[in-house]
Write a structure and sequence with these properties.
Blueprint lengths: L1 E5 L26 H5 L5 E5 L2 H11 L6 H4 L4 E5 L6 H12 L4 E4 L6 E6 L1 H4 L39 H9 L21 H21 L3 E4 L2 E3 L4 E2 L4 E3 L5 E3 L4 E2 L4 E3 L2 E3 L4 E2 L4 E3 L2 E3 L4 E2 L2 E3 L2 E2 L4 E2 L4 E3 L2 E2 L4 E2 L4 E2 L9 E5 L2 E7 L4 E3 L4 E2 L4 E2 L3 E3 L4 E2 L2 E2 L7 E4 L4 E4 L2 H14 L6 H13 L1 H4 L2 H4 L2
Parallel strand pairs: 1-2, 1-3, 7-10, 8-11, 9-12, 10-13, 11-14, 12-15, 13-16, 14-17, 15-18, 16-19, 17-20, 18-21, 19-22, 22-27, 23-28, 24-29, 27-30, 28-31, 29-32, 31-33
Antiparallel strand pairs: 3-5, 4-5, 6-7, 25-26, 33-34
């Protein structure tokens, strides 16, 4: 069976999280959809935005599907926005075994979540009209609500229209012939939903990791992989979930770890850190201060004191000493979040911030409740509003300015060097591509005062 994970046009609603990564690489409760897809008995290829294709090929070994590989084969199409929960893997395994062809749609958007095509359908691949499923430009506004007939447009893939043709064929299939329903396959539509699902799925994800093995129980509810060290006087509380420490994690002295907590390989937990109520850390992270119910992607630093709660941080972020965010309104009411001027009700009482890759904060930066920070920006003082990408944001001091892409390329080189990571041409190109793609954010002169 051929397995194709594809990004549709609604992936743009997940920005800034998805500026630097495909939707299937979003971490939620320590898992990525990609982790689960690799568990399926199928040959995996992907259809992603073209500027991410080379990075995915080099970093993940994932290629785009070709017509000669797909035509006449059984195919399972999987939307990259599916929530990476253990139940999702269970449902996808059922689909791999199912004999019938069909689709599962999202009831809110009509987007195709999964589609299974038989040999009979894919044999028609060469005859399917590529223009029948148009793609959308990568710079198109992510916040303009699409017509229901357009929600399955692709996010400008790099597969020469193969998946577009497959979606044309899938669109003709029945919606009630496959084992799972839409409730069994939830998908991300907005960035804050990553935090909501993270809190819900963290206990199940931890159990799934434990069942896969590779850990030794060093204390009641504390599981360590090889190379883990825990400093003296650490306090652990596993009454609400286990502590999982992957290879070569270093925990300093006087730390509090209150489960469920997952720390990825080579992560360093700084002395006096407090991690609690569901924390997921990617590999090669430095973490200190107080962190609660948050997701932090690889290579990000929050090394010093300060509070981070109910938040999502991308990769290569650095939070200066004393940086804090608010995750609760003074009124204790539900939090509304703003995406490009559009207010969205989250239904969440606790919600911190969403920070895109490569952004930084200065010392003692304060981020207000439910704020969205773009990629490659630098914050100083109080962040009382959303912050667009590629800006120096210091409204408290009456100073705001644009941040050129070349500055971030040089910053990237210095960061990579500190972590002994080679800066490649494709990494440099990503900085320039994201700068061009986020130009519309910086056009809002009146709102941001540039």
């Amino acid at each position: 069976m051929k397995l194709i994970c594809f990004e549709d046009r609604l992936v743009s609603q997940l920005q800034p999280i998805t500026h630097a990564r495909p939707a299937y690489a979003i971490t939620c409760a320590s898992l990525q959809l990609l982790d689960l897809l690799r568990e399926l008995p199928a040959d995996l290829t992907v259809s992603v935005r073209s500027y991410l294709a080379l990075l995915q090929s080099l970093d993940q070994g994932l290629s785009s599907p070709a017509v000669d590989q797909i035509a006449g084969q059984e195919v399972l199409l999987v939307n990259a926005r599916l929530v990476p929960r253990v139940e999702t893997l269970t449902q996808l395994k059922k689909l791999c075994k199912a004999g019938a062809a069909g689709i599962v749609r999202c009831p809110q958007t009509d987007a195709i979540l999964v589609a299974k095509l038989s040999v009979a359908e894919t044999s028609q691949l060469n005859a399917a009209a590529p223009e029948s499923a148009p793609v959308v430009a990568e710079s198109a506004s992510p916040f303009r609500k699409p017509a229901r007939s357009a929600v399955n447009e692709l996010a400008l893939p790099s597969d020469d229209g193969v998946v577009a043709k497959l979606l044309v064929l899938a669109d003709q299939l029945p919606s009630d012939s496959l084992p799972p329903g839409a409730d069994d396959l939830p998908s991300f539509q907005w960035p804050h939903e990553v935090v909501a699902w993270h809190m819900k799925e963290m206990p199940v994800a931890m159990q799934w990791r434990l069942e896969r093995g590779g850990y030794t129980e060093t204390a009641d509810g504390v599981f360590a992989a090889p190379g883990v060290s825990i400093g003296q006087y650490a306090v652990v509380d596993t009454s609400d979930g286990p502590i999982l420490l992957d290879e070569n994690v270093k925990v300093g002295p006087f730390c509090l770890l209150s489960g469920p907590v997952y720390a990825g390989p080579n992560t360093r937990v700084i002395e006096h850190a407090a991690l609690k109520d569901g924390v997921s850390l990617g590999h090669t992270v430095k973490i200190g201060g107080e962190v609660e119910a948050s997701v932090i992607e690889p290579y990000t630093n929050k090394q010093h004191h300060g509070f981070l709660g109910h938040s999502y941080l991308g990769s290569w972020i650095n939070l200066g000493a004393g940086t804090c965010n608010s995750d609760l309104k003074n009124t204790y009411g539900k939090i509304n979040i703003e995406y490009d001027g559009q207010k969205v009700s989250t239904g969440m009482q606790f919600l911190g911030c969403i920070i895109g890759d490569y952004s930084k904060t200065a010392i003692n930066t304060s981020i207000f409740t439910g704020k969205v920070i773009g990629v490659c920006s630098m914050l100083y003082g109080f962040a009382t509003s959303n912050v667009p990408s590629y800006v120096n944001y210091a409204r408290l001091f009456g100073q705001q300015s644009l941040l050129p892409a070349d500055v971030m390329v040089n910053t990237q080189q210095r960061m990579f060097s500190r972590r002994k990571v080679d800066q490649r041409e494709c990494d440099i190109q990503l900085i320039h591509d994201m700068y061009n793609l986020t130009a519309g954010e910086r056009d809002q002169v009146d709102q941001y005062g540039f």
